[in-house]
Amino acid sequence: HVQLVESGGGSVQAGESLRLSCVVSGYRYSTYCMGWFRQVPGQKREGVAGFDSDGATSYRDSVKGRFTISHDRATGTVNLQMNNLKIEDTAMYYCAARTGFCGNWPRKPDGYQYWGQGTQVTVS
What we know:
The chain is built from no helices and 11 strands. It is mainly β. A hairpin with a 6-residue loop joins strand 4 (32-39) and strand 5.
C-alpha cells in the first residue's frame, strides 16, 4: 500500500525559499510516476513538477528556474525546493503517485491514485 506524507510548508515573505518533502513508502520507484501538485481554494488542482520516464524533470512554466524537484532513493523522499517564492505560489501542495509508464510526466491530476494529505504554502 502506497503512502505519501508531505512536510515543509509554511508562511514566508515573497523572495524567500521553502523546501517541501514527501516521504513515500510501500512502492517501487521505477513503477510509479511521481509529482507535486498544488491547489488554491475554488480552483483546479494543477501540476507543479514531476519526473519523466527517463528521469528528466518537468515543470510548469510559472515555476521554471525557481523550483527544483529531486528524488532521494536512499530515503524514498521526493523533494521540492522552492526559491524566489511569489505571492501566486500560495496554495496547498500535494505529493502524488500513479502506477504505470510515465512517458512525459503526466501533469494533470487525473489518474493519480495516491495522494498525500497536503502541506500549506503561504507567501505574502
